[in-house]
Amino acid sequence: ELPPSEFMQVADSTWLVLSVVSNGREPSGCQATGVTKIARSVIAPLAEHHVSVLMLSTYQTDFILVRERDLPVVIHTLAGEFDIYKEESGECVPVTCDDVSNGFLKPKPAASPTLHPVQSPQTRFCVLTVAPDTLPAIATMLIDVLFYSHSPPREAGAGSQDLDSITFFAFSLIEGYISIVMDAETQKRFPSDLLLTSSTGELWRMVRIGGQPLGFDECGIVAQIAEPLAAADISAYYISTFNFDHALVPEDGIAEVIQLLQQRQESGR
C-alpha cells in the first residue's frame, strides 16, 4: 500500500518467513536462547547451501527470512532434520521435498564468506514487550522516539570505526505480539509499569556486523556470529536490517563475545 517514492529503497527479492517451533522435548534449564539456539540446526546448514538469510529475533521467538526463490533449497536442506509446514488459509499443511522439487538444482559449493568487521558500542539495551491493550498508552511516546527524537547520522560516521554509542530502536508487531529493543536511556522515558521484560531485567550489549552496508546476496554472515556463540553457550538476539546485522548479548558476557569474534577474525585470515 506504500506509494512509490524516491525516498524509499526496496530490495529486489521477496522474502518468506520461517519460524522454528520446539517439539517440547528439549531439556529445561539455563540454555542459550535466541539465534544461538538454532545456529547448528538451521543457520549453519543454510549457509553451507549458499542460502542468504535475514534474522529477526523478537521477545517471543526467532524468525528466519529466506528469499522466495531459495525455498526449494531451504526445504531440501532442512527436511531431514525438521517436519516442515506451510500455512494455507490459516491451517498448517505438511510440505515434502516433492512439493518444491520442480526446478530444484543442487547449489554449487559456496565460496568462503567474507569476514566482516564487528563493532561493539558502549550503549546498553533492553529487550521488552508490551501488552497489546496498553499500547495506546505509549503510542505517542513510541511515535516520538521512532520518528522525531534522533537526529540523522553524520555522513562522516557512516563507516566510522569509532562507535562509542549507537542509535538503535526496533519495534515489531507480529501476530499481535509486540517486541521492542531500545537503549536503557530511552527506556526511562516510558512508564516502567507498561514495559515488560524478563524477571531478571537483564541489560544487553550490541555487536554490529559490517563496516559498510552488507547487501542481500552474501550468505554465512549470521552463521559466522551465531556458531561461535552457540559453541560457548551464550544467548544472543539477532536483528538483520537493510544495511547492517546486529547481535545482542548479555552485558556480563560482552568481553567473552568480543574475544570469541576476534579469534574468528584471526583464524579466518
TrEMBL record:
Q: Provide the Gene Ontology terms for cellular component.
A: cytosol
Instruction: Enumerate the spans annotated as CASTOR ACT domain.
Output: 11-78, 201-262
> Single GO molecular-function term?
arginine binding
Sum up the protein's function in the record's words.
Answer: Functions as an intracellular arginine sensor within the amino acid-sensing branch of the TORC1 signaling pathway. As a homodimer or a heterodimer with CASTOR2, binds and inhibits the GATOR subcomplex GATOR2 and thereby mTORC1. Binding of arginine to CASTOR1 allosterically disrupts the interaction of CASTOR1-containing dimers with GATOR2 which can in turn activate mTORC1 and the TORC1 signaling pathway.
Q: Outline the extent of the Cytosolic arginine sensor for mTORC1 subunit 1/2 ACT-like domain.
A: 116-199
Positions in coiled-coil regions: none
Assembly: Forms homodimers and heterodimers with CASTOR2. Interacts with the GATOR2 complex which is composed of MIOS, SEC13, SEH1L, WDR24 and WDR59; the interaction is negatively regulated by arginine. Interacts with TM4SF5; the interaction is positively regulated by leucine and is negatively regulated by arginine.
Q: Does the keyword Kinase apply?
A: no
Put simply, this protein is called Cytosolic arginine sensor for mTORC1 subunit 1
Does the keyword Nucleus belong to this entry?
no
What GO terms describe the biological role, i.e. biological process, of this protein?
negative regulation of TORC1 signaling
